[in-house]
Amino acid sequence: MKFDTRYPSIDDLRTKAQKKIPKFAFEYLDGGCNEDVNLHRNTSELREVQLKPNYLRKHHGSSLKTKLFGVEYDAPFGIAPVGLQGLMWPNSPEILAKAAFEHNIPFILSTVTTTSIERASELTEGKAWFQLYHPTENRLRDDIIKRAAEAECPVLVILCDVPTFGFRPRDIRNGLAMPPKMNLKNILQVFGRPHWGIETLKHGIPNFEVLKPYMPKGLDLKQLGKFMDQTFSGRLNEEKIKPIRDMWKGKLVLKGVASEYDTEEAIRLGIDGIIVSNHGGRQLDAGQSTVKPLATISEKYGNQIEVMMDSGVRSGPDVARAMASGAKFTFMGRSFMYGVSALGKNGGNHTISLLKTELQQVMEQLCCEKTTDFPNHLIK
Ligand SMILES: Cc1cc2nc3c(=O)[nH]c(=O)nc-3n(C[C@H](O)[C@H](O)[C@H](O)COP(=O)(O)O)c2cc1C
Questions:
Q1: How far apart are CA 131 and CA 155, in angstroms?
Q2: Which atom of ligand 1 is nearest the CA belonging to 113?
Q3: d(C-alpha 274, C-alpha 159), whole Å
Q4: Which residue is closest in CA terms to ligand 1's atom 5?
Q5: Ligand 1 atom index nearest CA of 334
Q6: Spatial separation of the C-alpha atoms in residues 370 and 372, rounded to whole Å
Q7: CA–CA gap between residue 170 and residue 166 (Å, rounded)
Q8: Which residue among 119, 135, 217, 296 has its CA within the 20 to 30 Å range from the CA of 62?
Q9: Among this protein's residues, is 60 annotated catalytic?
Q10: How far apart are CA 271 and CA 254, in angstroms?
C-alpha cells in the first residue's frame, strides 16, 4: 500500500485536520451554507447509488486510466479549485499541484487561492487548469486570461454558481466573511495549533498571488474585502461568456451547472465541458445533490458536451458511483484539503494514493475493466 495506513479514509484525514488547524480555518473548509443541508445531501444521496458486480465474467484487469479532452489521465478524478488554500495549510496549493502532476491527474487553480498561475504551471509543466472568477473590468479579465494562456494552461474553468457569495454562518461568526476581520477569538485559536502557526510563520502570511499584481499595496483586511467586492461580478451570462470563448483557444469548462437549461446554454455558447456541481453545498442550501441532475444531464447531453461532476465525493466507491451515474470525470475539493491539512507535504500524495487504491479495488470487485464501463454496473 502506497498510503500512510494510519489514515485509510477521507474521514480519518478530516478528523486529523480538525485537530491540526485553527477552528476558523477548519470551519471555512468543512462547512456548507445556511443549515448545511445540501452539504450532507451531496454525499448521502450519492451513496444511495448501488453497483452490480459480475463475479464470474472473464476479467482481463482493471485500469483507472481515463481520457478527457484528448489527454489520458492516470485516474478519473482531479483536484477542484479551492480559494484561500494557504489559510488551511501553508503552501497547500503547491503541495497539491505537485502531487497531481506526479500522479498525472488534473489540478485546478482558483483565482482566489494563494499561489500564482505561473507557479502552478511551473510545478505541473503547464498541465494545471485555471478557474476564473469573473472580473468586473474587461481589462483585468483579459490580462488574467492572457497570463493563463502564456502559462500554457490547457483548460479554463468559469463559474456559474456564484451570482452571490454563499451565506455561511460559521464564516460570519469567525469573521471570514467579506470584509474579513481577525478577532481575538481567532488569534487564540492559532495559539492552540502551534504546528500550523510555525509553518505559517515559516511560509509567510498567505497572499492572493493571482491577484497581487492588481491589488493596491498595503491593504488592511477591511479594504481587501472591498477590493474583492469591487473586482468581481459573480453573475455569469451570455454577454460575459462570449468574449471569453472568443479569446480562449484552449478547452473551456463551465462549473456549477445543476440544470438542463444551463447545460443547453453551455452547448449553445460553444463550451467544451461542464462540471455538474453545487460548489460542495456552499451556495444554495435548498438545492439538489449533484448526483440527481447528473443522471439526466449526462443521458440527454453527454454526447454533445463532456459531463464531469463534483460535490460530496469522499472515497473511491463514491467516484465509482458518480461515474456509473454518468460523470465522465470527477473532482473533489474538501477530500484533498483534509489530506493536506492533516498531513502537510505528504497530504497530496497520500490522498491521491488512497483514492486510487480504493477505486482499483471497486473496479476489480465489479469486474469493470475501463472507467467508461461504470454505467454498465449501475443498478437502476
Ligand atoms: C473551502 C472551499 C473553497 C472553495 N473555493 C472555490 C473557489 O475559489 N473556486 C471554485 O470554483 N470553487 C471553489 N470551491 C468549490 C470546489 O471547487 C468544489 O466545487 C467543491 O469543493 C466540491 O465539493 P466537495 O468539497 O464536497 O468535494 C471551494 C470549496 C471549498 C470547500
A1: 9
A2: 8
A3: 10
A4: 82
A5: 25
A6: 5
A7: 11
A8: 296
A9: no
A10: 7
Mean pLDDT of 253-272: 98
322 burial via Cβ count (<10 Å: 0-12, 13-18, 19+): buried
- In this prediction the pTM is 0.96
Q: What is the pLDDT of residue 293?
A: 98
List, for residues 71-123, the tens digit of each pLDDT value: 999 999 999 999 999 999 999 999 999 999 999 999 999 999 999 999 999 99
Which residues partner with 254 through β-bridges? 158, 274
pLDDT of 183 > 90? The answer is no
Give the residue, out of 44, 279, 314, 334, with the most ligand 1 atoms within 8 A of its beta carbon, to mutate for a pocket test: 279
| Cα–ligand 1 centroid distance for 79 (angstroms) | 10
Residue 251 has which C-alpha cell? Answer: 478547452
What CA dihedral angle connects 172, 176, 180 and 185, to 10 degrees?
90
**Pocket perturbation via mutation, ligand 1, pick of 13, 26, 30, 82 by most ligand atoms within 8 A of CB:** 82
Cβ(157)–Cβ(81) below 8 Å: yes
Phi and psi, residue 331, nearest 5°: -130, 155
92-103 and 347-366 helices cross at what angle (nearest 10)? 40
pLDDT tens readout for residues 329-361: 999 999 999 999 999 999 999 999 999 999 999
Cell of 152: 500554457
Q: 35-71, pLDDT tens digit by residue?
A: 999 999 999 999 999 999 999 999 999 999 999 999 9
- Looking from the CA of residue 43, the nearest atom of ligand 1 is 26
Question: Which is the closest atom of ligand 1 to the Cα of 81?
Answer: 17
Residues with CB under 6 A from ligand 1: 28-29, 42, 80-83, 110, 112, 131, 159, 255, 277, 279-280, 282, 310-313, 332-335
